[in-house]
Amino acid sequence: MVFLGADIGVVNPNHCIEEWIDDRVNIMFYTRFISIEIMADSFIIKNTQYSHNFLKKWANWEFIEKALPVITNKTTFDYFYRSHGVDNGVLQLVVLEAVLPNAKVEYANCYEQFNTAYDLNKASSYYGFVLCVRTVLGSEYFWPGKIKIYRKGLGWARDGGHLTYDDWSEHDFMIHDWKGDDITKLAYWHKPASLLKEWKSPFLSMLNISECGKGYSGWNWRIEKKKSVEEIKKQLVESEKLFQDLFLKPHRFNPLIDSARIDKCYPKCDK
């Protein structure tokens, strides 16, 4: 089964989702380009007991989150990026526990960051929490029989407006962050003013489903939005540096040196 959020759509019909199905695992995620989060808004999942258990554990966080602090100031741009991430934030913890069940101390360190991310007055942020989880996971992206996480830029979808303003290439399949009920009038609402610029959809008009299935009929692209792979790569490199400087580097957090460890488990840290 493929889960897609409502703001994800196909931009290039020359790909099939089967390209990303790996029979060696039960669940497939991909890494978001901006935040290095494990993306919650789209995943591929098998109908297995492992998958059922994973989804139930993820869903049960709804009841845990209700007991956590609530942010009341939702008017600033900072709120969007320094909140707890709702389902996306929780997913990082669920994946960490699923693939590294014995990393209890490290999990506790990251969970502390997760709670801190609720407080807009703290220097730490949601990104500090994400960096904590990804540091513990290390360079591993594949756990046989469990989960696979596609590296940044290599999944079946990627953020569009944030990175390339929905320019696309033959390498792309789906684009994330199409919001609104008319793609010809779409505007982004969660960017700082310094990043805003005119946005144009990859399409000239809303798609006509009745035309689908007849070659490229119905795919009314703006010709200028399709770029070469090298052109998109250049845009992604520039965006990667921008968002690293803007969001990730100011909130660096290494659970090995930035959080107490011994007090959580000594003298039974291996239990």
TrEMBL record:
Gene3D superfamilies on file: Spore Coat Polysaccharide Biosynthesis Protein SpsA, Chain A
InterPro entries: DUF273, Nucleotide-diphossugar_trans
Pfam families per UniProt: DUF273
Organism per entry: Acrobeloides nanus
Protein name as catalogued: Uncharacterized protein
